[in-house]
Design a protein that fits this description.
426 residues; alpha/beta; Rossmann fold; Molybdenum Cofactor Biosythetic Enzyme, Chain A; 2 domains; 15-stranded mixed β-sheet; 15 helices; 18 strands; globular; binds adenosine-5'-diphosphate
């Protein structure tokens, strides 16, 4: 018997978000970074989420990477494939959501799939095919200014129609509230009209449950992590998934505790301020980092001096918008960011090899840099610290004990996140 669910996620933190929801709904979940190149032992695994970087890359690359992930997941026996994208449907008129979905359908020999971006718990809902963020339409939510994929049209049927040559359909709320049988009948009618991709209205958790009941046996589903929360109950009903006591059970954590932060988001700055009122931290400055290795050496010495006691140690480049602007004016925006990412990645590598066993990284790009420097290829997903951020665990080559890792993207987490994260692990 293979895994139940195989997911292809179009970015790293989106993959973790889905994996986190699957664990919370009772699936033992592994997140892999890119398509694995070696055989994995999946005996105690119900779901695998393959994290790709296919949200904003050229269409052909997104399609070929997604198909490679699909083929690998098919080889692991996945009963259902989930294409995970952002709950704000981040894409351009060229793609990549439409073309990737078409390619996955073709490869699976399937005729239709649903598109369920909604995540009501996070205020993302869809009504009459229009996506809302809180009480605003998508195109009036701030997403219209996104640097890579500005979303200027909240009508998802129209948006998706620009990304696929096939007609796009709608499963409207009135049909959904009539129940799964009605919803399925509507989808079947659309199939007979050649509709391959169907945008689904979703207002709340109850709608997600009806949708999950409607599509649990389809070869392919697509959407945000909200749908991931609802599907496991259906898998259990079908007898595909057994009950486990704690799907997020990890091996006991060991080693010292380190926080590396490259996130300059508002939430992270408050978390740092809160942490520094109780514990010690070392501030990195990109301008000093660019001038010589002296600051990196000082940061290493600071951490080495303190890492043997029980308190977590923080090293951060996180700074206020004015400070960031100053560094960017001096060094250039890309170079300033790279300096910081390289420094934090170097510190992670050195300090993990010296006994750090619990590592918390703040910042999406920063997490990517640290994960790749450490050579992490897979993460077993544990229990949630705050919505969207679980503890995870990985086994690094040459290390006896597993490394516990939490990767927090910018705006996630409550103000006491940095200290509480280690308390919940203890
Ligand atoms: P978030 O998830 O909050 O967006 P990211 O890590 O994705 O965080 O992005 C923050 C970016 O800012 C990274 O590229 C990081 O290297 C850069 N950065 C961090 N500190 C500074 C600083 N003091 N000056 C300039 N850039 C910085």
């Amino acid at each position: 018997m293979g895994i139940v669910l195989g997911a292809v996620a179009d970015d790293f933190t989106g993959a973790t978000d889905l994996a986190n929801n699957l664990v919370r709904a009772g699936m033992r979940t592994l997140q892999v970074i890119g398509v694995p190149r070696v055989a994995l032992d999946l005996a105690d695994t119900d779901a695998v989420v393959v994290a790709l970087k296919s949200r904003s890359c050229p269409v052909q690359e997104a399609v070929s990477d997604s198909l490679a992930a699909l083929n690998w997941l098919g080889g692991q026996g996945a009963r259902q494939i989930f294409f995970k994208y952002c709950s704000t449907f981040d894409s351009t008129d060229d793609g990549n959501i439409g073309p990737v979905t078409d390619a996955l359908l073709d490869q699976l020999g399937a005729r239709q799939t649903v598109m369920v971006p909604a995540f009501p718990a996070n205020g993302r809902t869809v009504y009459q095919g229009h996506l809302f963020v809180g009480d605003r339409l998508l195109n009036d939510s701030g997403m219209e200014h996104h640097p890579l994929n500005p979303m200027r049209d909240a009508d998802l049927v129209r948006t998706l129609s620009r990304q696929t040559p096939h007609p796009v359909g709608l499963l409207a709320h009135a049909t959904l509230t009539a129940g799964a049988a009605q919803a399925r009948a509507h989808l079947n009618k659309l199939v007979s009209q050649g509709v391959r991709q169907v945008i689904c209205d979703t207002l709340d958790e109850a709608d997600l449950r009806v949708l999950a009941a409607t599509v649990a046996e389809c070869p392919l589903v697509t959407g945000g992590s909200g749908l991931g929360q609802a599907l496991p109950a259906e898998y259990r009903r079908l007898g595909w998934l057994k009950e486990v006591d704690n799907a997020g059970q990890l091996a006991p954590a060991s080693g010292t505790s380190l926080i590396l932060s490259g996130s300059c988001s508002r939430a992270t700055l408050s978390q740092i301020e809160h942490f520094l009122s109780r514990y010690e931290g070392f501030a990195l400055d990109p301008i000093a980092l660019a001038a010589s290795d002296e600051q990196l050496d000082k940061a290493l010495a600071f951490a080495r001096d303190r890492l043997n006691n029980t308190d977590p140690v923080l090293i951060y480049a996180s700074a206020t918008p004015d400070q960031v602007k100053h560094a960017q004016d001096q060094l250039g925006a890309a170079a300033a960011g790279e300096r910081v990412e390289r420094a934090l990645a170097t510190l992670a590598k050195a300090l993990v090899s010296e006994g750090v066993g619990k590592l918390l990284v703040a910042g999406g790009e920063t997490s990517g840099a640290v994960v790749s420097a450490l050579g992490i290829r897979q993460l077993r997903i544990g229990s949630q610290i705050d919505p969207g951020v679980p503890w995870t665990q990985t086994q690094l080559p040459g290390h006896q004990a597993p490394l516990s890792v939490a990767l927090k993207s910018g705006n996630f987490g409550g103000v006491d996140f940095f200290s509480r994260a280690f308390e919940v692990l203890a």
